[in-house]
Design brief:
Blueprint lengths: L1 H50 L6 E6 L5 E8 L2 E5 L12 E4 L18 E7 L17 H4 L3 E10 L2 E9 L18 E4 L7 E4 L1 E7 L8 E7 L5 E9 L3 E10 L2 E10 L5 H12 L1
Antiparallel strand pairs: 1-2, 2-13, 3-12, 4-11, 5-10, 5-12, 6-7, 6-11, 8-9, 13-14
Length: 282
């Protein structure tokens, strides 16, 4: 009887300890999830606070009512190699601006090539974007396979009397744009100067030489055609700020969450560029 009682007690104790251990583990996981959620909310708050204070490179910090804290670092994106839109896709037919002069505090001030000449290289297209056909199918959707072309509209001279130079590069030029300049097909990896953790490998590139006639260039609009795509830019002279890159870290207890967000400068409407094209053609 004593042996049976001991065995029953051992089994009961084992079961009890197992249940208690699982309960403690569940409570710990639940608390970690709750702390992580609060840390994430704090990081989001840091992004919102930073977006209201986009003036130069600085840090925004604070503590929320629930005692979670955030620390948001704001960096103005600049450097010799940049990924447009923070490394995300640039929308087809919409494009993004590449500033070749100052934006803040004085717009169009100090074009980077004003005292010299140089080269700007544009990179686009990623693995899988290799088809020159404009169609698609259920098994091969257009958005995943169509090879993008690149239109570049370069404004130079002065903002009050702008002149425009138009470039069109297409690796499918013999099929789609007989008059387009061919794009180079070379695999090149671009790492963003402001966020070394983000790199993109591109399969097409094209150079624009900035000579004495173009050294007053102050902005370029880069527009992908036929497909959205990631775009990288490399310059022989360091590019000025293109917007703000925000890294916000939220903390609560032992939990830490990080959010990164890119805020470009307001885009100039594409209609402005095309209006200049129409004016120059008249």
């Amino acid at each position: 009887m004593l042996l049976v009682v001991v065995l029953v007690m051992v089994v009961a104790l084992t079961v009890g300890l197992s249940v208690a251990s699982r309960t403690i583990t569940s409570l710990k996981i639940s608390k970690q999830n709750e702390d992580s959620q609060r840390a994430f909310q704090a990081a989001e708050t840091g992004i919102q606070e930073a977006l209201q204070q986009l003036s130069g490179n600085h840090t925004v910090a604070g503590i929320l009512d629930n005692q979670a804290s955030f620390n948001a670092v704001i960096n103005q994106t600049s450097g010799n190699q940049l990924l447009l839109n923070g490394g995300d896709d640039v929308t087809q037919d919409k494009g993004m601006d590449v500033w070749l002069s100052g934006y803040s505090p004085v717009m169009y001030a100090n074009p980077i090539f004003s005292a010299t000449t140089g080269t700007i290289t544009f990179y686009w297209g990623t693995a899988g974007q290799s088809s020159c056909t404009q169609g698609g199918s259920a098994s091969a959707p257009r958005g995943n396979t169509v090879r993008p072309a690149l239109e570049i509209l370069l404004l130079y001279q002065t903002p009050s009397n702008p002149q425009l130079r138009k470039y069109l590069f297409d690796a499918c030029s013999s099929v789609r744009f007989p008059g387009a300049q061919p794009a180079s097909s070379t695999s090149t990896t671009i790492t963003d100067a402001n966020n070394p953790s983000v790199s993109v490998t591109f399969i097409y590139s094209a150079n624009i030489s900035i000579n004495a006639a173009l050294n007053t260039a102050f902005i370029a609009k880069v527009i992908p055609l036929y497909n959205s795509t990631k775009i990288g830019v490399a310059s022989s002279i360091s590019l000025p700020g293109q917007g703000s890159f925000i890294t916000s870290t939220g903390l609560f207890g032992d939990s830490s969450r990080k959010i990164q967000y890119f805020k470009p400068y307001p885009q100039l409407p594409a209609e402005l560029f095309y209006a200049i094209i129409a004016q120059n053609s008249n």
